[in-house]
Amino acid sequence: MPLTGRKIAILTEELFNEFELIYPYYRLQEAGAAVTVVGTGGGMTYRAKSGLSFVSDKGSGEVSAGDFDGLVIPGGYAPDHMRRHKATVKLVRDMVTEGKPVGAICHAGWMLASAEVLGGRRCTSFFAIKDDLVHAGAKWEDAEVVVDGNLITSRTPDDLPAFMKAYIAAFK
């Protein structure tokens, strides 16, 4: 399994996109990774837009980039809540600057903008936040998946198969 021995964090917050959290969660486990769900608080229940819920394993203030080999940021409206917490923004910034694979899908680009890691980087996202990412210095592309070094981004749940294939390949 390509991710055996790897530790991957998946961020969550209120109104996460259920597909963008659950598909990576199980796909990463299937590939052999130990997955930790990190919310702004540990042991908290977060609701998806659909009403589905997920409990975080840890809070962003309890972990650091050194605890993980990679990070996945689901979209939905959760990133707008995530970026209000300094510890969550710091975790994203540190993961990107340390060169660890960071995957962001849909509205997760908001976290990359708040972490100030997009300057000159290629990325994609849900089209509605394109202007936000461009204003943060990104070179935005309309593509199923965009890989720029350790940054892997996609647009919508429809892109999840390509997104996860590219994300897992980033560990080779």
Question: Can you walk me through this structure?
Answer:
This protein has 172 residues and is an alpha/beta fold. It has one domain (7-169): Class I glutamine amidotransferase (GATase) domain (Rossmann fold, 3-Layer(aba) Sandwich). Helix content is 30%, strand content 23%. The strands form three sheets. Strands 5-2-1-6-7-11-10 form a seven-stranded mixed β-sheet, sandwiched between helices. A two-stranded antiparallel ribbon has the order 3-4. A two-stranded parallel sheet has the order 8-9. A hairpin with a 2-residue loop joins β10 and β11. The longest helix is centred in the first third of the chain and has 13 residues, at 18-30. The mean pLDDT is 97.
Q: What would the average pLDDT be, to the nearest integer?
A: 97
Radius of gyration: 14 Å
As for the number of domains, it is 1
Residue stretches low in confidence (pLDDT < 50, at least 5 long) are none
CATH topology: Rossmann fold
Shape call: globular
CATH level-1 class? Alpha Beta
Number of helices: 6
Q: Name the structural class.
A: alpha/beta
Summarize the structure.
With 172 residues, this protein is of the alpha/beta class. 30% of the residues lie in helices and 23% in strands.
